[in-house]
Each structure stands twice: as structure tokens, then as C-alpha cells.
Specification:
Layout lengths: L6 H15 L31
Length: 52
């Protein structure tokens, strides 16, 4: 995920990232959001302790 104040800034970052990744970069589609969405952190389900 990239963040920028303009489309040009995001496109420049995407180009730099693609250059760093080289052949590992398999896709370069850029989806621009049209509004700010609620931001939440990553939430992982708690796993039961399993005795080994």
C-alpha cells in the first residue's frame, strides 16, 4: 500500500518500488480511493494454547 498527496506522487513511488522488486513485481495496478475509509489495525483471532 502506498500513500501520497497526489496521483503523481503515488505513481512515482510505485515506479521506485517496481524497480526495487525487479522481476518479483508481478502486477502494478494502482487503485485510487475516492474517500477516506475508517482505518483499523490488524486484528488476529486468538488461538487456543496447544500443549506440545
Amino acid at each position: 500500500m502506498l500513500h501520497g498527496r497526489s496521483r503523481e506522487e503515488v505513481e512515482r513511488q510505485a515506479e521506485e518500488l517496481a524497480e526495487l522488486l525487479g522481476d518479483a513485481c508481478r502486477d502494478r495496478r494502482i487503485l485510487y480511493s475516492s474517500r477516506i475509509l475508517k482505518k483499523t489495525g490488524l486484528r488476529l483471532a486468538k488461538r487456543p494454547n496447544i500443549a506440545e
